[in-house]
What does this fold into?
Amino acid sequence: MHYIRTIVILLIIYLALTGNLQLSNIVLGTLVSTVAALLLRPQPGPTDLRRLPAAGWALIRYTAILAVDVVKSGIGVARIVLDPALPIQPGIIAIDSGCDSELGTALSAHALSVTPGELVIGIDKAGTLYTHCLDATHSAEYVADAQAMRRDLLSKIFP
It folds into this structure.
């Protein structure tokens, strides 16, 4: 049953993105959604509709904060590129993901890697993210608060 639910959700997303409701596209979307569901291997679990508004709000906040971080980091990297005299201290820092699930750790790593100037280069078994930063001194101060916020929002989105 959880595979069917995942296939239907993925199919709806596919059809919304393509905007094409022809039979051939629906069949193709069903095949793509089925393959994706088989690769994702969704876990069975109860669906609690009461937590849906809180999860939706957390998803909106997470997306907005990630967008702001991308813009701010992009401006910072642009300043470094345009003015090479700016002092930077590149380095690798260890960030504890603090997430219980692999999905939470992977999404935290994605959020770090998508922001300019930072790149996750490795994750150990305990969930520690090893991240290369253009300015390791500044990133080490900022990262603890940002990771705590990410962990909080991701735990509300994916319990």
